[in-house]
Structure formats: C-alpha cells, structure tokens
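#structure-requests
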Amino acid sequence: MEIMKHSANQILVAEDDYTSRRLLEIRLNKFGYDVISTCDGKEAWTKINVPDSPNMIILDWMMPGLSGIEICKKIRSSEIFKERYKYIILLTGKGAREDIIAGLDSGADDYLTKPFDDTELLMRIRSGRRILDLQKKLEYSATHDALTGLLNRGAILNSLEKELSRCKRTDAQLSIGLLDIDFFKRVNDTYGHIAGDDVLKEISRRIQSCIRDYDLVGRYGGEEILIITPNSNQEQAVNIFERMRKTIKNKSMQSGKKEISITASIGIATYGNHMNMKHFIQIADDALYTAKKNGRDQICCPENIIQL
C-alpha cells in the first residue's frame, strides 16, 4: 500500500474507547497524518473550535459528553464553519440502513462501520481529502484575481470592511493606499496586452515584497490596487508606500525580451472620525488624483486627514 505525506496532514479523532483510539492513531500515523486525539465529545468540540483546527474529523457515534451525531449538527449549524468547512467521517457499529441515513442526515460526509480495515480507512480519507482540496481551490478562485493572484475587488473590500469594524470597536489605527500604474494604457498600446499583463503581475509581486505579513493587497479595478495596512498611522503608512513606490521604479520590468520602465502613484488615507468605507476610499482616491496631477511617480496624503 502506497503511503504518502500530506500537506494538510492533521486529522482530529474523537473516540472514547482507548484501544480503538490508539489503533486509529497508529493507522493514521502510518498513512502520514498527524493526529489530534480526544476521548469524549466535549473535548472534541473544544478542539474543533480552536483556530486552524483540522478540517478532517473522525468522530465516534457514541461518546460521553456529546455524541458524534450531536457534534455533526453543531458544526453544520455554526456560522463559523460555513467559511471553514469540516469534512466529517462518522465511526459507527450500527450497520442498519436507517442508522447510516441518520448519521449522514446529521451532517456527516461519510461513515465507517466497525470493524474496518486499513485500506477502507485510507480510501475514505483520500476521498475526503479530494473534496477538501477542491473546495480550497474553489474558495481561492472566488476570492482572488486570476491574473495577479491578489485578492479580487469583492474580497479586498470585504477585508477592508472587517478592518474598519475592528477600528470602530478597538480604536485601532488603520491606513490604506490606492495605487495606480502610471501611463498603463501607453504600456498596452506600445508593447501589447501580453506585456501589460506581465507588468501587472510583476508590480503585484513587488508590492507583496514590501508589505508586512498581516497587510492585505487586492486588485481594486483595472490597474488600480488597494493596499490595507492595519495598525499603521499616517507616518508609518508613508514609509511603507514610499518603499513600495521605489521598489516599483528602481528596476525595469521584463516581458519577453522587452524591458519596460514603470512608475506608480499612490494615494494614502488614514482612518479617523469613524468614517465609513466609501468615505475612506474616497480620501485615498482624492489623494491619488493629486499625486497624478502633481506629476505622478509619488505618494500623497490629504492635508485634512483626521488621525486617531
């Protein structure tokens, strides 16, 4: 039997019988998985609710505290797990048709009837892994721009809305930058649209090389890119975006054998006075317009910005 290591290689196991739990751990370790074990339903539910908990879960039907069926129902009714899907395999000694239907109806994706062998267990896990991998690809496609790999417009605006809500709750600092590629139409007209695509991809890569781990970048529209920099005041944002501007300008970009020199203009806004998202972006857009009007290849902050 072929044994492989998996990238998403954690599985949560909830089984109250010690011998059965240890056998499962040994089998799953042999298949290349890391196992998080729990011995009752309440402990399992606690571990499921930890951030970044495994997306693959094996639940025994009958457990103290919470049964596997009850946990399935709680997972499927939770808003949290609508965004972080959990694939559930239910272990059961009940082989009757109505019991299997009841288990699947509770929200389980698959089931294993005890006793089962290694091959059956591995096949069920591989089937679940394929579904989880496909879902991950679909989620990525729904939230990312196909050309640049950046967040798409809907996803970056959704992220900004969440950051604004956080600011209103906690008085945290927040700045954004709206970046526009200077004379991008000229690039397309002179070098062609393939070269224009290459420039967009390279600029996206350079932007990402300048940001912090928790900053967010999305394609706002056309050649405009929106960058969210949480926990940054205007001065800190200026430093981030000036470094970005220089990184874009300092080295020409390659498209085939063509070398293309590119600059960018950036308008900056810093959150204040409980402004809404439309107002916040408009401040950055006005600052971007000023940067372009004043000669491009520069960053601009509005003088009337209200800082926290």
